[in-house]
Specification:
The chain is of the alpha/beta class. The protein is built from 15 helices and 19 strands. The strands form two sheets. Strands 1, 2, 3, 4, 5, 6, 7, 8, 9 and 10 form a ten-stranded mixed beta sheet that branches. Strands 11, 12, 13, 14, 15, 16, 17, 18 and 19 form a nine-stranded mixed beta sheet that branches.
Length: 583
């Protein structure tokens, strides 16, 4: 849970505003700032337009500092400007100081959540980072990975910003990095809205930093990715500090199940009956429901109905990809939370209660301890490749990256529109990456135990299965590349290094948490290498095919449109550093 502030502060929330030739942006900016701040301390950095007059006339602006008028950006000293603003703000004895540039906004829902956070929950000993999103075309579309910037803190006398002339983090030097916290209050950056604005930003930084003293290149400011992402409203259960738990304290309605168990299966009658039996035998104090979605013919559906009359059965017409089957179950699910164990997963007694307890502690995504139910060499190899982070010997923990699988608060799945239906593998990884990137937290509950009966009984099945998973990973990487969240260079370099990295990670996790399973791992190492290599080759196969196809379409003038689908760019590896790089 969020920590209780160590001291109580009172005073205004002051927004610091450095501005130059920002007359066109100021009305929208000040309207946005009024949603969370009590007053503005501004600095007109030698503008040649009406910036100063607009600032002096606006009732929200308390102080307007000025620099001498100048025609260009040569000699721009951002540190000197911001330190002047901070010194002037300290005279007002503010409770909080926020730095926001003239071409930046907070949407109404984020601003309201920020104001509530500052009133209840923010720790004045911490400094807070906000994600800056590059808006393209209008305020309904953005692209690229977020740039994390330090903007919010509780000031005390003697605070100063770093002395770097450009591209520093505007957090006082006295606040250590160990006290920096990432938040979910998104800044909409308007500097790249149009081609004209992008060219103007490039010219600005080339004039201010002609010798590239503060940044190696500014050419990225002109880049526009193939597709953009749709702006989305703030979720009701989104935490203020990223990846912290937030309790849903609303009591269950009469007849509302606490959790829905959605089991999907295809051509696997024996396994699905075992999974359904294990689910229906769970014991909970609250009501729960079991939903089975089959796409392997009516025979499997009839077998489930006969064995478990109280289960809801949905028989899809024809073969269905996993995302389509999950969504079919999700559409009829009524539980506050929902889990998708699959026909190959058997729930241990008490596992559903342990999972539900973790959700009720405020974790919107929860995963489990996984045991192995396929004890051939290939089965053990697949188990270690997929579950090295979820071994029985590892205690419960909060994830610092997207979880490999999860159950969910059902409202979160509604926010992202369910699961993608266009891929054979990785549909849950897409959702997990997206939710984690938005700031939702994930918890591994060690007492929630399940058994995975992998189909990988032989080396041949192992290779085919993991090659397919590698292709699913490639689709996520290419989606991220299309919206500018992953450069081609990083995509290729990361994929080259992925195979040895995955093997090292698997070995390290088993060595640390494997316990009695370490012997099985040592005997399975050749199969582990084979499965990981198959996934790596499957990833390269998919990358090569789709990148060549995209190149052909571009050359023929049929490049993809500006607005992406929901799932573009959900893979978010390797976010930029916290240095205040130009956007």
């Amino acid at each position: 849970m969020l920590r209780v502030p160590s001291i109580v502060v009172s005073g205004p929330v002051v927004s610091l505003l450095p501005a130059r030739n920002a007359a066109a942006d100021l009305p929208g900016h000040l309207e946005s700032v009024a949603r969370f701040a009590d007053t503005v301390v501004a600095l007109d950095d030698g503008s040649t337009d009406d910036t100063r007059a607009i600032l002096e006339a606006h009732p929200l602006v308390h102080t307007v500092l000025t620099n001498p008028r100048r025609e260009g950006y040569a000699g721009w000293d951002d540190s000197a400007n911001r330190n002047r603003l901070l010194a002037a703000a300290l005279d007002l004895a503010p409770a909080w100081v926020m730095s926001l540039d003239a071409d930046e906004l907070l949407a109404a829902d984020d601003a309201a959540a920020l104001r509530a956070f500052l009133a209840h929950g923010a720790d004045p000993d911490d400094a807070y980072l906000l994600p800056v999103l590059r808006m393209i075309g209008d305020l309904g579309h953005y692209a690229g990975e977020p740039l994390w910037v330090g903007r919010l803190f509780a000031p005390v006398p003697g605070h100063v910003f770093p002395s770097d002339r450009l591209h520093f983090v505007p957090i006082p030097t006295a606040i250590p990095r160990s006290r920096w916290r990432r938040t979910t209050f998104r800044i909409q950056h308007r500097g790249a809205l149009t081609p004209e604005r992008r060219r103007a930003r490039l010219a600005k930084y080339r004039e201010a930093d002609p010798n590239h003293e503060w940044q190696g290149s500014y050419d990225h400011l002109l880049h526009v990715p193939d597709r953009t992402r749709l702006w989305y409203p703030r979720g009701a259960l989104l935490p203020a500090v990223a990846h912290q738990p937030v309790e849903d304290s609303e009591p269950l309605a009469p007849g509302e199940p606490a959790i829905s168990v959605v089991i999907i299966g295809r051509h696997d009658e024996a396994r699905i009956l075992r999974a359904v039996t294990a689910a229906t035998r769970q014991e909970l104090d609250d009501p729960f429901e079991v939903i089975v979605v089959t796409s392997g013919g009516e025979r499997i559906a009839e077998a489930v109905r006969a064995a478990s009359p109280g289960v809801t059965v949905i028989a899809l017409d024809g073969p269905a990809l996993p995302g389509q089957a999950r969504n079919a179950g999700l559409r009829v699910a009524r539980g506050r939370w929902v889990t998708f164990p699959g026909s190959h997963v058997e729930l241990a007694p008490g596992s559903l209660a342990a999972r539900l307890a973790a959700h009720r502690r405020g974790w919107p995504m929860v995963t489990e301890t996984m045991r192995n139910g396929t004890t051939t060499r290939a089965g053990w190899a697949s188990y270690f490749l997929d579950n090295a982070g979820l071994l029985p010997g590892r205690p419960s923990f909060a994830f610092e990256s997207p979880p490999p699988r999860a159950s969910y608060h059902r409202g979160l799945l509604a926010e992202v529109g369910g699961f993608p239906e266009d891929r054979r593998a990785g549909e849950d990884s897409v959702v997990n990456e997206e939710l984690f990137a938005r700031g939702y937290g994930a918890w591994r509950e060690a007492t929630c135990e399940t058994t995975h009966h992998s189909p990988c009984r032989t080396a041949g099945v192992l290779v085919v299965h993991h090659a397919q998973r590698g292709r699913g990973r490639a689709q996520m990487l290419l989606d991220a590349r299309a919206v500018g969240e992953l450069s081609t260079r990083r995509l290729v370099g990361g994929t080259v290094r992925w195979l040895p990295g995955r093997l090292r990670w698997t070995h390290r996790e088993v060595a640390r948490w494997g316990g009695d399973l370490r012997g099985e791992y040592r005997r399975s190492i050749p199969w582990v290498v084979a499965g990981a290599t198959a996934a790596w080759l499957g990833c390269w196969y998919e990358l090569a095919g789709r990148m060549v196809g995209q190149a052909v379409r571009r050359s023929s003038g049929r490049a993809s449109g500006r607005v992406s689908g929901r799932w573009a760019g959900s893979g978010r590896g390797g976010q930029r550093s916290l240095r205040r790089r130009s956007r």
